[in-house]
Automatic annotation (TrEMBL):
Subunit-structure text: UreD, UreF and UreG form a complex that acts as a GTP-hydrolysis-dependent molecular chaperone, activating the urease apoprotein by helping to assemble the nickel containing metallocenter of UreC. The UreE protein probably delivers the nickel.
Domain of life the protein comes from: Bacteria
Function: Required for maturation of urease via the functional incorporation of the urease nickel metallocenter.
InterPro entries: UreD (IPR002669)
Compartments (UniProt record): Cytoplasm
UniProt record similarity statement: Belongs to the UreD family.
One Pfam short name: UreD
Family annotation (HAMAP family): UreD
Annotated segments matching region Disordered: 1-27
Protein name: Urease accessory protein UreD
Keyword field: Chaperone, Cytoplasm, Nickel insertion
Species: Streptosporangium brasiliense
Length: 278
């Protein structure tokens, strides 16, 4: 679906706001929210809320065991400059949910240089689990995207998160990209990280950050069982030129795997070696 297929924007009604109040600058772009809620019912997981608009088309997948599956389809080019996109997913007590996307998300410039935002909010209740496994995010040249992921976990909740970022399409430099991941467990901070890539980000391509690589990924695993069997730190990949990954135990029942590679093929191999995902 192209943006030209969207209904025309209504003509705004003149504002009666006093002249002393500064007018808010209208930012072009799509404002859209997808909402997903998983609940436990009859020994399995059901989806009482599955709603998306704008570029989000939500499809139910085949249930795997007692885990409900949702695939997010992009039905128009997004995010473009000025877009404000948001995904909200909640897993109720005892429910199990798997979310993925049908294709890579490509950040593009669009008709304005205004940045786009893509915010993900995940909530996992007691004895529930959530797999957040989107396809890669590609930062195309001249794009400007601010992405955030905020996660709230109950004390007995389990989480599997896998994210991959590709900086620039073939033969092009990346756009501006900032990402932020905030995770709370039992109302306490578990992980807070922020990264910036592309024009305006100091040192992002230097030896202390990407060292010339263009694909970066991570896997976050949160599971109370890790308290009993905590893993040891481990390095994956023998040659830095083809990428490496490191497994790091976190302060809590959690593990963070981070990887750098020259391309998506090497990145997939490293992440799968560290933690295979069916």
């Amino acid at each position: 679906m192209s943006r030209a297929a969207l209904p025309p924007t209504p003509t705004p009604v003149p504002d009666s706001t006093p002249a002393s109040r500064p007018a808010e600058r209208a930012v072009p772009g799509v404002h859209a929210t997808a909402r997903i809620r998983a609940a436990r019912a009859g020994g399995t997981t059901v989806l009482p809320v599955l709603a998306g608009d704008g570029p989000f088309d939500l499809r139910r997948g085949h249930t795997h065991g007692d885990r409900a599956r949702v695939c997010i389809l992009g039905v128009m080019s997004a995010p473009l400059g000025g877009d404000r996109l948001r995904i909200e997913a909640a897993t109720d007590h005892g429910a199990h949910l798997h979310i993925t996307t049908a294709a890579a998300t490509i950040a593009l410039r669009g008709p304005t240089t205004e940045h786009a935002t893509y915010d993900v909010h995940l909530r996992v209740a007691e004895h529930a689990s959530l797999h957040w496994l989107p396809q890669p995010l590609i930062s195309a040249a001249r794009s400007n995207l601010r992405q955030s992921c905020t996660i709230d976990l109950a004390s007995t909740a389990r989480l599997l998160l896998r994210e991959e970022v590709v900086l620039g399409r073939s033969g092009e430099p990346p756009g501006r990209l900032s990402t932020r991941l905030t995770v709370h467990r039992d109302a306490r901070p578990l992980l807070e990280q922020q990264t910036m890539f592309g024009p305006g980000a100091p040192g992002w391509d230097g030896p202390a950050v990407l060292a010339g690589h263009r694909a970066v990924g991570q896997i976050l695993i949160v599971d109370p069982a890790l308290d009993q069997h905590p893993p040891r730190a481990r390095l994956f990949g023998d040659d830095p030129a083809t990428g490496q990954a490191v497994l790091t135990p976190l302060a809590g029942p959690a593990v963070l795997i981070t990887a750098l590679a020259p391309d998506t093929l090497h990145l997939h191999r490293l992440l799968n070696a560290a933690h295979p995902i069916a």
